[in-house]
Amino acid sequence: MRKVPKCNTKGCDESRLKKPGNNTLYFRYCAGHQIKAVLSKQEEERHKDIKGLEKMRQNPRKTPQERFYQSRAWLNCSRYVLLHYADDDLMVRCCTSPHLQYHITDKSIHCGHFHKSDQHKSVALEFKNLAPQSYSDNIHFSGKPEIMAQWIERTHGEGTLEWLDRKKNQSMKLDKYTLGKISKHYLKLFNAELERRGIESPWK
């Protein structure tokens, strides 16, 4: 039997994390240090986000990011995410502060990104990259990436973070055609969920 290589982190004797769907390839680190490596990259991206937001504040014209958040694709996607995770009373918990619970139409609950949409367009509308998140955590606490990372792994399964980390670097243009296609996809999911629950859209 092939010996599993050790984690590349100095002083760590844990075995490396095996890559999903492959019996012979491993990541450079153990599960714990692999997540820390992903989060380290995420923190670097947060700093870039702050600079980008400052530019948006100084520039009164609509930016591509503003156009994205005003698109039908984002509207249908974000509403589906909130509805999907809501209970029978249409209350949904913040993924990073679960003691906070809101009605899905409350402006205090957002659809938060793990990998930010302006930097990684290929996962900007990826369901597994999105989660219900309070306004406070999303805006004032930079999305609390460490807690959100744990939530993603618990919700979607081990290896999801690594899958998102690979997918985020894929080339993708969110042009009018692509946004239209994605918008129809999430609208279909949204309507199917409404039908399953036997309700009308709470946003009407």
Q: Can you lay out the helices and strands and say which pair or pack?
A:
Layout: H1 31-58, H2 64-69, H3 72-85, E1 91-93, E2 101-103, E3 109-113, E4 130-134, H4 135-140, H5 145-156, H6 160-167, H7 176-197
Antiparallel strand pairs: 1-2, 3-4
Structural features, described:
This protein has 204 residues and is mainly alpha-helical. The protein has a domain of 134 residues. The protein is built from seven helices and four strands, in the order H-H-H-E-E-E-E-H-H-H-H. The strands form two sheets. It has a two-stranded antiparallel ribbon. Strand 1 and strand 2 form a beta hairpin. Helix 3 packs parallel to helix 7. The longest helix has 28 residues. The radius of gyration is 19 Å and the shape is globular. The N and C termini lie far apart (60 Å). The relative contact order is 0.13. The mean pLDDT is 90.
